[in-house]
Specification:
This protein folds into three domains: 5-87, no CATH class; 107-233 and 461-467; 244-451, Rossmann fold, CATH 3.40.50. The chain has eight helices and 25 strands. It has helices at 84-87, 258-278, 303-310, 335-345, 375-391, 406-423, 437-446, 463-467; strands at 5-10, 13-17, 23-28, 33-35, 67-69, 72-74, 80-82, 107-114, 120-128, 135-139, 146-153, 157-160, 164-170, 177-183, 191-197, 203-209, 221-222, 226-227, 231-235, 244-252, 282-290, 353-360, 393-399, 427-429, 453-457. Strand 1 (5-10) and strand 2 form a beta hairpin. Helix 4 (335-345) runs parallel beside helix 5 (375-391) and helix 5 packs parallel to helix 6. The radius of gyration is 36 Å and the shape is elongated.
């Protein structure tokens, strides 16, 4: 016959249509392929493109050619009988010989059946096994690469791979298409036929029946597939396991920062107690000055002394410049280099959240030696950010009051904020200190806790997915 097509029409049957849309052949799964006389059996409707099924034609529509009993055909005289095995090799959806590089791992796809208004009515998934190409032609168990199939909606309930009669899918360029035919075994009393979906066009759902409801030809559509996405599980702390947090408070030790050092020192104890109530943690806090200290405060040790004596780092490995080597006390204001040295060399506890709270009132590279922020300050901030991120350190910043012009202060404030933002920390200014250093330090402590653990679970094409 010329211009013949084959379409999935009902459980266990495929109809072969000629160019005039007349049924010429019925493929019966439980017997031979039956070819009827040339005058045809009945008319069968297609979409305008002549390819996609528009109406479902079941056995009850063919009573004029024979009596239908329990899904079988009686009193029908065929003109030709061909083995069923030949029928399974004849299909209008077979891919050509073009091939693509096979995948090295299983790939799962999801799909949806939509109502007329575009809302979801049902959803499903299927999985192509290891080494599969991005296509499959499944005919009742003939494609071993199809390892999973699940579908669910309110009419058919849940259907799995045992219900799948056929599935045709290709994601190859120029050949993209998706269709399937699934009916619950052994009675074929609930299922659906959906096909013709492409990335640019919805497919039609023709047959769609449940045990008590017939939803066929109600305009529902099959949506093109999407790659199954992993699920992300966020594991919050359970209140029993207290997270470890190491917090280093590093301060510019120039005279202009003395007020902040004294105020912060006075607020520490209350802030820690408040933080324990709001965000419990196994907190360790170390207070260090950049190339100097503040008498009668917790800032009684310099960064250089701590790293060279407590963590035994060689002087030559430190980026921070020694006091007196930079004009105007700039070494005491080397905020960016202090972030580098502490990120790299501090004795962080294994498994602890790493946080650094830097307090200063001038540019990050040796202060405002020329009364402005320049490219050197920006490059120093870039390097500090990179080192902190590599070490997994969250940097919080505080910019105190200073005598620079408003324009310069805004530029400096922007760099302090950028360092905090790009390392996952918080930025504060002297305006925030108006509510008290206790509240500010509490925010820093709570903001230094490790993020909840995120566990990525590979997509599972399973019953739980379609029922979720």
């Amino acid at each position: 016959m010329k211009n013949q097509k084959i379409v999935e029409a009902m459980p266990g049957y495929r109809w072969e249509i000629d160019g005039a849309n007349f049924v010429k052949v019925v493929y019966r799964q439980d017997s031979d392929l039956v070819v009827f006389a040339d005058q045809g059996i009945c008319h069968y409707r297609f979409d305008d493109d002549g390819e996609r099924l528009m109406e479902f034609l079941d056995a009850q529509s063919l009573l004029d050619v024979g009596t239908v009993t329990d899904g079988g055909w009686l009193d029908v005289t065929p003109s030709v009988v061909i083995p069923w095995s030949s029928a399974t090799e004849t299909t209008n959806t077979a891919a050509d010989s073009a091939t693509s590089a096979p995948s090295t791992q299983a790939m799962s796809y999801t799909f949806r059946v939509l109502n007329n208004d575009g809302t979801e009515f049902g959803k499903g998934c299927f999985t192509l096994g290891n080494g599969s190409e991005s296509s499959v032609e499944y005919r009742r168990g003939t494609a071993e690469t199809l390892t999973a199939f699940w579908y669910r909606d309110l009419i058919v309930g849940v259907l799995d791979l045992s219900a799948l009669l056929s599935l045709s899918f290709s994601d190859r360029a120029g050949e993209q298409q998706f269709q399937f035919n699934a009916w619950a075994q052994p009675d074929f009393d609930r299922g659906l036929v959906a096909g013709g979906a492409t990335p640019d066009q919805l497919g039609a759902v023709s047959a769609h029946r449940g045990a008590t409801e017939d939803g066929s030809c109600q305009g529902r559509k099959l949506e093109w597939v999407a790659i199954g996405q992993p699920t992300i599980e966020v594991v919050e702390e359970d209140g029993v396991t207290i997270p470890l947090v190491d917090l280093v408070v590093a301060i510019d030790s120039s005279v202009s920062m003395k007020d902040e050092a004294v105020a912060l020192d006075a607020a520490v104890s209350a802030a820690i107690e408040a933080a324990r109530a709001h965000c419990p943690s196994d907190l360790r806090v170390v207070y260090l000055g950049i190339e100097g200290t503040f008498r009668d405060t917790r800032f009684n040790q310099s960064i250089r002394k701590y790293l060279t004596t407590t963590t035994n780092v060689a002087e030559s490995e430190l980026r921070g410049r020694q006091r007196g080597t930079v004009a105007g006390g700039g070494a005491q204001e080397d905020g960016a280099r202090a972030i580098e040295d502490l990120s790299r060399h501090f004795d962080w506890r294994p498994g602890a959240g790493r946080a650094l709270f830097f307090l200063g009132d001038e540019s990050l590279d040796g202060g405002n030696q020329d009364g402005k922020q320049d490219q050197g300050d920006i490059e120093a901030a870039n390097l500090a950010i990179a080192v902190a991120k590599e070490a997994g350190v969250r940097v919080h910043t505080y910019l105190g009051t200073s005598s620079v012009k408003d324009k310069v202060r805004r530029e400096i404030e922007g760099e302090y904020a950028r360092v905090a933002r790009e390392t996952g920390g918080q930025s504060f200014t002297s305006q925030d200190a108006l509510r008290g250093f206790q509240a500010l330090l509490q925010d820093v402590i709570c903001g230094s806790k490790p993020e909840p653990r995120r566990i990525e679970h590979p997509f599972c094409c399973c019953q739980a997915y379609v029922e979720s």
